[in-house]
Amino acid sequence: ITIGLAIVGDGLLPGSTPHQVDGPVWHQALVVALTAGVVVLSYRPARNLLSRHQAMNAAFDPLHLVNTYGAFGSITRVRQEVIVEGADDLDGPWLEYQFKGKPGDPMRRPRQVAPYHLRLDWLLWFLAISPAYGRDWFVPFVTRVLEGDADTLRLLGDNPFPDHPPAYARATMYRYRFTTGAERRATGAWWDRTREGELLRPVRLEDLR
Fold this sequence. Notes:
Layout: E1 5-8, E2 11-14, H1 25-41, H2 43-49, E3 79-87, E4 95-96, E5 98-99, H3 119-129, H4 138-147, H5 150-153, E6 156-158, E7 168-178, H6 181-187, E8 191-203, H7 205-208
Antiparallel strand pairs: 1-2, 3-4, 3-7, 5-6, 7-8
C-alpha cells in the first residue's frame, strides 16, 4: 500500500501528492537557451555523420562544444585479415588458428564482443593494414604458437593442434567482404574471402630463435 504525504502547516496530510515547485524563470530560460544552442551546433556534425564523405575527429565550432569523434582520422573501405596457420609438414595440410573476435572461418557468424576489448584481435587488424605494426610483437607471437605456450593459446578462440604444437607456421593475407543475401542463402557463409599473398613464409621454431 502506498500513501502519499504532503506538508500542511506543521503536519502531514495522508493521501496527498507533493506539489512540485518550478525553478526560477532565469534558470528555465538558461536551460532552454543552452538546449537550443546545442541543437544549432549539432546540425553540422549530424550532417557530417550522414555524409558519404564523413570527416572524423573534425571540429565544427571554435569552442569545440559539439564535434565528431572517432578513433581514427579515416577508416579503410577494404577489410584485410591475417590468417595464422600451422602444419606438421611443409606440404600440409595447413590448419587455421581461429581468434575470439576477428574474422577467420567464413562460415562463422561475426561476434559481438563489446565492451570487452580483444587486444590481440585488434592488433592483428592493424597488422593487416601495415606489416610495420607487427614489427615488435608478431614474430614473438608466432614463436609462442610454435612452442605451444599455454598463455598465448588462451588468447585464441580455437587451437587446431590440441595435442602438440605444429612443426611449421605461416601467415597469409586475405581480403574479406560480407556475402550478399543470395550468397549467404546458397553457401551459408557470412564472409567471402580472396587470398592476396603471404605475410610470413612457412617457418619452424628453429628459424625464429
